Amino acid sequence: MIDSDTKTLDAVVVGTGMAGMYMLYRLRNKGLNVIAVEAGTGVGGAWYWNRYPGCRCDVPSIEYSYSFSKELEQEWDWTEAMVGQPELEKYLNHVADRFDLRKDIKFSTRVTAASYHEDNGRWAVETDQGDKYDTNYCVMATGCLTIPNYPDIKNADAFKGEVYHTATWPKEEVDFTGKRVAVIGCGSSGVQTIPVIASKAKELIAFQRSPVYTFPAKNAPMKPEFLAQAKKDYPEIREKQRNCASGIAGYSGPKKPKVEGAPKKRKASRKILGLTAEQRQAELEEFGIGAIPNYVDAFFNEEANGIVREMFDQELKRIVKDPQKADALSPKDYPLHCKRPVIDTNYYDVFNEDHVSIVDLRKGGIEELTATGLRTANAEYEFDILVYATGFDAMTGGMTAIDIRGKGGESIKDKWADGPTAYLGLQVCGFPNLFTITGPGSPSILSNVIVSIEYHCEWIDQTISYLRDNNIKAMEAEQSAADEWAIHVNDAAQGTMYVAPTCNSWYLGSNIEGKKRMFMPYLGGVDKYDEKCREVVANGYEGFSLTS
Ligand code: NA7
Predict the structure, then answer these.
(1) What angle do CA 367, 368, 370 make, to 5 degrees?
(2) Which one of 115, 178, 338, 477 is at 20 to 30 Å from 212 when CA atoms are compared?
(3) What pLDDT score was predicted for residue 309?
């Protein structure tokens, strides 16, 4: 029974990050009555919430941008090779204005519940502002890195100073001048923010449970000739992005004219095994620490991984002068390529400054927060500001934070208790007409995510056209297809360092207590994934049941 306050729609899009914005644009353009619901006061998703100092994209901006509008590509000028959060947020606001998206977005509103009605194949969606929507399709554009992870620390509320989380950073500037700052967590966010906060603070203490392997970002201002050429080359760049595994074309700018007789520039070897100790040392000296992640055999081979880890350690000890700090920063106990690679600007260098210290929590964890700081198993620390850089309930958190109930009232939380499965990362069995953008089992965050986002939005758009053209009331992933796909996703990761026994990462869900250990993204690549999706469609949506 629909009450009079309920708004009837064709589609509800949850979230207006890069995915939700494009989905809204596509569905509206096809004439659907659609609304997008956004918890923030503005668009941007991850680029709206993660406004901590130093937040920056780790994919070149030329490639980390929408491809759907040629005009947009031509009119937007990136100012750096890899821009920071403020510029990305500005870009996304420009997109929202340019395509007049705001008129169909309900801001400052969080979707709290969504339940499926089997009798009519429709969803009832509720928000924390009391909105009620009755909709045919529900598209979850809730993102892979949405729900902040707050560690379960004893007396968490005891600390009387200022407390921040990198993933929910305030819009107002935080003044670190002359302050003693503690940062808990040294993943990508910690690595990015520590040098920037340290440049202002009187003292910075990094509390680190797992050191990362991090490599210089080598970010630089955008050269006008590079940008001009990229704008000309966009068709090729986009074509290449969609037809490779990573979704990154590796665009390198204007082609340099060949100089007759000029010596060929040497590149670092692709494999480390087979090089003698002298050759490895020579490569390290010539190419530096940045060459280390490119030795491909280290992805699969333990011996190769061991060698590059030793090389990494050697470089780390050279950069960080204090042997105790270098030892604390050394990620000895898990392989390279287990966690998402981190790139940084001045991360190791900042530990050469006297006012920046590191606490190695492997030698004794945090026991409790106190009114003035925190206590580890070994010592007590005092500070004025506490920054949690402790990551996310990744890949699934955005969905499980909502009370989503499918057929028979089953909740998504229960459905995924034993590991999240979603056929092609697009639909969950038992949840008809609900689509997941970059859901578990798709290349998502293992690829250039904007490429995967656009792919999913277009697939969902075309699928909805098919459903409407063919009077199909409900579309649902079949359990057998979802299970088979989950096995394939798992197989694709086997033999890589991503699933090494000593590896704990948010890809595996192992950063969240009680979360089932399962490798969630699809490692097969954007190109292979596209082949599979095309095959599924060509075979009449094989693996989905379609009910008229
Ligand atoms: P990450 O990469 O999950 O990093 C979170 C960090 O917080 C990591 O070093 C964690 O150590 C640490 N952490 C988590 N819980 C605790 C507790 N209880 N005590 C101490 N330290 C803790 O999140 P980020 O936000 O840095 O980056 C996420 C992605 O965003 C990144 O990959 C980029 O793609 C952008 P752990 O490793 O779990 O031992």
Answers:
(1) 145
(2) 178
(3) 96
Residue 2's pLDDT is 54
Q: Taking residues 48-54, report their average pLDDT.
A: 98
pLDDT per residue as tens digits for the range 99-119:
999 999 999 999 999 999 999
pLDDT, residue 3, reads 64
Pocket of ligand 1 (CB under 6 A): 145, 151, 166, 184-190, 207, 209-210, 340, 361, 366, 389-391, 506, 511
| Nearest CA, atom 28, ligand 1 | 391
Residue with tokens 């090089």: 275
What is the best residue among 56, 149, 189 to mutate for testing ligand 1's pocket, by most ligand atoms within 8 Å of CB?
Answer: 189
- Residue length of the chain: 548
Q: What is the DSSP code string of 60-74?
A: -TTTSS--S-HHHHH
pLDDT at 135: 98
- Cα–Cα distance between 439 and 399 in angstroms, integer? 9
Tokens 């299970």, residue located: 483
What are residue 436's DSSP bridge partners? 140
Q: Which pLDDT tens digit goes with each residue over 406-424?
A: 999 999 999 999 999 999 9
pLDDT of residue 275: 94
What confidence tens digit (pLDDT) does each residue in 313-325 have?
999 999 999 999 9
Residue 276 token pair: 């003698």
β-sheet with 203-208: strand ranges across: 162-165, 385-388, 180-184, 203-208, 356-360
The atom number, within ligand 1, closest to the CA of 506 reads 3
Going from the Cα of 525 to the center of ligand 1, the distance in angstroms, rounded, reads 25
Which of 52, 58, 188 to mutate to test ligand 1, by most ligand atoms within 8 A of the CB atom? 188
pLDDT tops 70 at residue 374: yes
User: How far is ligand 1, taken at its centre, from the CA of residue 190, in Å?
Assistant: 8
pTM of the shown model: 0.96
541 vs 424, 534, 535, CA distance in Å? 12, 9, 8
Distances (CA, A) of 6 to 31, 89, 123, 170: 21, 33, 12, 33
The bridge status of strand 366-369 relative to strand 373-376 is antiparallel
Domains of the chain: 7-147+393-547 (3.50.50.60), 162-217+275-388 (3.50.50.60)
| Distance from Cα 391 to the centre of ligand 1, integer Å | 4
Mean pLDDT of the chain: 96
Shortest-distance atom of ligand 1 to CA 445: 34
Q: In which region does residue 316 sit, left (phi positive, over 0), alpha (psi from -120 to 50) or beta (all else)?
A: alpha
pLDDT average, residue stretch 25-53: 98
Residues 226, 253 contacting (CB under 8 angstroms): yes
Ligand 1: distance of its center to the CA of 84 in Å? 20
CA gap 471, 12 in Å, rounded: 19
Query: What integer pLDDT is reported at residue 265 of this predicted model?
Result: 79
Q: What's the count of helices (H) and strands (E) in the chain, helices before strands?
A: 15, 20
Provide the pLDDT for residue 262: 77
Structure tokens at 528: 């292979």
